[in-house]
Amino acid sequence: MDRREFLSTFAAALQNSPAGVTRYVRFRQGSQVSHGILEGESIRRITGPLLGSHRPTGAPLPASSAELLCPIEPGKILAVGLNYKSHIGNRTPPANPEIFYKPVSCLQHPGANIVIPRDASNVHYEGELVLVIGKRARNVSREEAPGVIFGVACGNDVSERDWQSGPRKDLQWWRAKGADTFGPLGPCIARGLNYGDILLTTRLNGAVVQQQRTSDLLFDCPAIVSFVSRYVSLEPGDVIYTGTPGATKKMSPGDTVEVEIEGIGALRNKVSDR
């Protein structure tokens, strides 16, 4: 995908964004990888750790001159299944958040290709809100949970349905949801956003295929973080994909899938077989 085209799409998605939101990106310019703050179509590098004390530095640089990367390098990725009524249909809602792992090697950058493995035949998109953990969390309450969430991003929990639950299913979802490139993430981390009630829209080749507000999550973001932290310590930089709404469909090489969330922007990836 052309870098200018991608950044233009991203900027358009933020035109009516609420004030007071800071958007952090991770980018490569030449051989240097940095974190920065996205300001319109410019990026300001930051000095200091993203999840610690940092400040902008230097002159703004054109975003079109940078290659956007996944905005964080997490130590682990967790995800929630069956977290919208519109997705589970007539099935009984779970009593607790249904948590699973995705390997960090599944991450894919904004604008890069989702690659369908050669023996996969039923690969679906799953547009999702993603939480980025900013502080260590162990046994945090629901009330404490917002204080450990640094910000939110767009994600796509790409899934091979036959490997997940079909006739060729595995014991675990290690490849159904963890194959290389099955975890697009980005294009930025939005901080200061009311992520409890924002609109998530997924498009396949420009057509809307998923659309729902995050207020419809069965288990909201604080509930997810609190529940996970009872059993697994969350570390700074960890990410949690919070679940997908509605029905999903198969993607094919040549398709383009876009996950747009109010106030965050649009995560856009093409689909290929190599």
Report what the structure shows:
- By secondary structure, the chain is mainly beta.
- The chain has a single domain, classed as Fumarylacetoacetate hydrolase, domain 2.
- The strands form 3 sheets. Strands 1, 2, 3, 4, 5, 6, 7, 8, 9, 12, 13, 15 and 18 form a 13-stranded mixed β-sheet that branches. A 5-stranded mixed β-sheet has the order 10-20-19-16-17, covered by helices on one side. Strands 11-14 form a two-stranded antiparallel ribbon.
- The longest helix is centred in the first third of the chain and has 11 residues.
- The two termini are about 15 Å apart.
Quick recap:
The protein has 274 residues and is mainly beta. The protein has helices at residues 3-13, 85-88, 161-164, 221-229; strands spanning 22-29, 32-39, 42-47, 55-56, 61-62, 67-69, 77-81, 98-102, 107-108, 114-115, 123-124, 127-133, 149-156, 159-160, 183-191, 199-204, 207-213, 239-241, 256-261, 265-272.
Spell out the blueprint of helices and strands.
Elements: H1 3-13, E1 22-29, E2 32-39, E3 42-47, E4 55-56, E5 61-62, E6 67-69, E7 77-81, H2 85-88, E8 98-102, E9 107-108, E10 114-115, E11 123-124, E12 127-133, E13 149-156, E14 159-160, H3 161-164, E15 183-191, E16 199-204, E17 207-213, H4 221-229, E18 239-241, E19 256-261, E20 265-272
Parallel strand pairs: 7-18, 9-15, 10-20
Antiparallel strand pairs: 1-2, 1-6, 1-15, 2-3, 3-4, 3-5, 7-8, 11-14, 12-13, 12-18, 13-15, 16-17, 16-19, 19-20
